[in-house]
Specification:
Elements (H helix, E strand, L loop, with lengths): L1 H5 L2 H7 L1 H15 L9 H20 L12 H24 L8 H4 L8 H28 L10 H25 L3 H15 L14 H4 L3 H15 L5 H25 L3 H4 L1
């Protein structure tokens, strides 16, 4: 416990901030290394998926959002894109977590290297990609909806549960991935299921009332709804739900970090 208290995440990031920034930069560069378009893929890929999903859900399934000001495909696409951006942070972190340590065995064998910064760096690169996508979304909102709401100022607060949840799960899964090599495949299936069970392509009201409780078991449901409300529709966030999300995600982060510190001594033996 003393080790856990002396190595809290905030002091860790401050102490190794330059190293964290280097690893974030490395993560961003190596992701598209060798490709002709390079970093442009971080913009092209979500836009291509957005076009496909917008066509499927707005044209074929005739989907509509509860707070939509218009029935235009542009507003539908912006609303959809917002949910995709939020989920992408979670997805990028969790799907890469099981191989995070096993892909960096050299750092495991270095006694002085702070392995705890690897999950932070992974989260950092996901947040950078989110900010790139958010910039595109806001430009689209200005062009097509002609407004930016002051409620956007709540965004840093609304992102905290997402950040805590993602980082906590990265600590847990990156540790377990060292000992359970099949975890990578299991996580990919679970993330795909969560993608469809999170109200990204549809409003919660589209789900039968007797099944909505199941939808809210998914912690990403409330996070996506709150962020979409403030970014797209200018609605004040639900602070009661946000408080619950924050407490739960913070507990997951604390447990995940404690578990990582407890198990890291066995990494070298396995690798």
């Amino acid at each position: 416990m003393n080790d856990f208290l002396s190595k809290n995440i905030i002091s860790l990031i401050i102490k190794h901030r330059e190293l964290v920034m280097q690893f974030i930069k490395r993560e961003l560069i190596t992701k598209y290394k060798g490709s002709f378009l390079g970093r442009f893929w971080s913009v092209i890929t979500p836009l291509m998926m957005l076009t496909i999903y917008t066509y499927v859900f707005s044209v074929i399934f005739k989907g509509k959002w509860d707070f939509a000001a218009t029935s235009s495909k542009q507003e539908f696409a912006i609303t959809l894109f917002c949910g995709m951006l939020v989920f992408a942070v979670f997805s990028e972190c969790v799907t890469k977590a099981p191989t995070l340590i096993t892909n960096n065995p050299n750092y495991v064998k270095k006694v002085v290297f702070p392995l705890e910064i690897l999950p932070v760096s992974l989260l950092g690169s996901a947040v950078v990609n989110f900010l790139i996508g958010l910039s595109i979304l806001l430009v689209g909102k200005i062009i097509f909806l002609h407004n930016i709401s002051w409620s956007l100022l709540y965004l840093p607060l609304m992102l905290l549960p997402l950040i805590f949840l993602s980082l906590g799960l990265v600590y847990i899964f990156s540790s377990l991935g060292v000992f359970l090599r099949d975890l990578e495949h299991s996580i990919n299936i679970i993330v795909q299921a969560l993608y469809m069970l999170t109200p990204i392509f549809y409003p919660v009201t589209a789900v039968p009332e007797n099944l909505r409780g199941i939808l809210y078991i998914n912690p990403l449901t409330g996070i996506v709804e709150n962020i979409r409300n403030i970014v797209v529709w200018g609605i004040q966030p639900n602070f009661i739900n946000w408080s619950i999300q924050l407490i739960v995600s913070l507990l997951i982060l604390i447990v995940g970090y404690w578990w990582f510190l407890r198990t890291r001594k066995g990494f070298a033996d396995v690798l």
